[in-house]
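Why predict the complex rather than its parts? Because the way molecules touch one another can change local conformation, and only a joint prediction can capture that. The input here totals 694 residues.
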Amino acid sequence: MSQPSSIQRRFPWHILFFLAPGLLIYVTFSVYPLLDTLWLGLFQEDATGQRFFAGISNYQTLLLDAAWSEPFWNALWNNTKFFIIHMLVQNPIGLFLAALLSSPRLRLSNTYRTLIFMPTMLSVVIIGFVWQLLLSPIWGISEGFLYSIGLGQYFDAWLGKESSSLITLALISVWQFVGIPMMLIYAAMLSIPDDLIDASVVDGSNAWQTFWNIKLPLILPTIGMVSILTFVANFNAFELVYAVKGALAGPNFSSDIMGTLFYRTFFGFQLQSGSITMGAAVATLMFLIILVGVMLYLFVVQRRMKRFQL
Amino acid sequence: MADVKLSNIKKSYGNTPVLHGIDLDIKHGEFVVLVGASGCGKSTLLRLIAGLEDISSGELCIGEQQVNSLPPAQRGIAMVFQSYALYPHMTVFKNMSYGLKIAGKGKDFIDAKVREAARILHIDHLLERLPRELSGGQRQRVAIGRAIVRDPNVFLFDEPLSNLDAALRVKTRVEIGKLHQELGATIIYVTHDQVEAMTLGDKIVVMNQGRVEQCGTPLELYQHPATRFVGGFIGSPKMNFIDGKVAAIGSDHIEIQLSNGCRSRACVEAGDLKVGDSVTLGVRPEHIEERSDAGTLLSGDVSLVERLGEASFIYMTLGDGTEMVVRGSGESTVTTCERIEVSFAPHNAHVFDSNDRALRRLKPGNVHSTAQLAQLKAVGQETL
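Output of the joint prediction:
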């Protein structure tokens, strides 16, 4: 830097030019609607449909007025259970399947991969409909199937009971989406060099020790990513419950999650009239919940997890 | 004591045979180098010995024990990989102690072992670092350290130097040589680099297309290559080959009519050869002299001169288009496009028959072998 910086550098217009298209789309379709939702949650409507600024009164109603807060906490708790079931069932199974798929001794692994991933590509509505038929106590084939393998006495109308409908829905969702963690973890496993596995075999570890000591630590970042994706997807979930149980998320709101609560609040359903502003408040809370979750992950979990150069 | 004995080892993937029956005897404490072009099966052979791949047929013994079906950890071997294969999420200490931990050794024992190995390799100060914080040479040491702590009877090295830069490679090569003397263990070392093979090996096994082409000490391979492949593989620059026909057979030499019209003498045993048979004459670049009266005279056009200071490699084309390399003196004044005459002595010639088998040389090397070995090593250093 021998020359003094007397010449002012030109404004880097080209950077702006290249950023503009993406930025424009992002602002129009993502940032603006989000901000508008946050803003809208601060209004109320009178009987004539006139909007007026109401501060945080929507949130007060939602969190403190029993008529609103009970469904809200119910939906939030249900949603948390929905997420926990995914974390406990979907991701371990995805990990297990990925480990099986990456075994060089497994034949037809491509076929299995495609088959397991297939439901993910189907519409949630179709999945919901198909499972509703399968599990129906009247004409579903599940009961007959269970009897034919000697487990008939365990059959129940799982989707119709308060105690089991949410769990059943979560398991249907797990069945559909297990392919995603499987694929992501499978890809991470493939990127582990063969030499590392060989070295661990020469060091004397058996298949289980190799998995536990070598492979698992190396795919941990991917598992973290899968978890956060699961979290976001679960707290945004709506379609499956709507397709199977309708907007009332029955029986008796036992399968109500944030998505369905929002739907009823915003659009109204049967005896409940829709409220755009209250809906915006629910949407804002959903956004905040997801935001907090993701922040926790990014700043607490991911900081401690290192990606290793392989 | 752990001799390694391979009897008729074969390996095929599906219907594709990769190794066609390898026989090899390795004495305890020997440094054996498997060398060959890529795809010749040398790495596969090493993996078979390590137990990372199954042997299709044949018998592998380490010590007194047949180990064909033993898992790697029970064979008493340790392996150093080309990529080092350090566990990226473990510190150097954990990398080195992993095998012992798996084997269920005590904490104090592991600690002592690892520190001892680290001391030998001068990596004591790196024990708490992660592999990514190490340089290539340091990673290499850790990989070797990981092998040492297990006290193996046999060390297996799979091209351990190929990821290092040239200077470090020479340095590490020397260190591996010293380490071998220090540990006294059997080492089987795979490389494609003939210089590494010549400098490190007590015994070199030259492999080609899944077969052992020749096995012997560095000097044996240099002076008595059994086949044309070995002749061309060992030595740098490569041995020159000139096609020809047997013109006359004497008691201690044969005469060859070369393709460029010259007639050359070679001190080899004729064996079954008859006059008129096709043969290939082989002469090493370092055995050819510029402008000398001794022996066969060849003339050709210089296409390129590489000047290395102490020597010059002169690339020339003979009248019939045969390419040749000559190792001239460092002060050589030869320039490109010049026509020069070179010669070699009959006792320095190698002759290969039409099946590429070498004829036995009668006065090999003539015979200051230690000096030649020194020269050979010097040649090797230059090519690095």
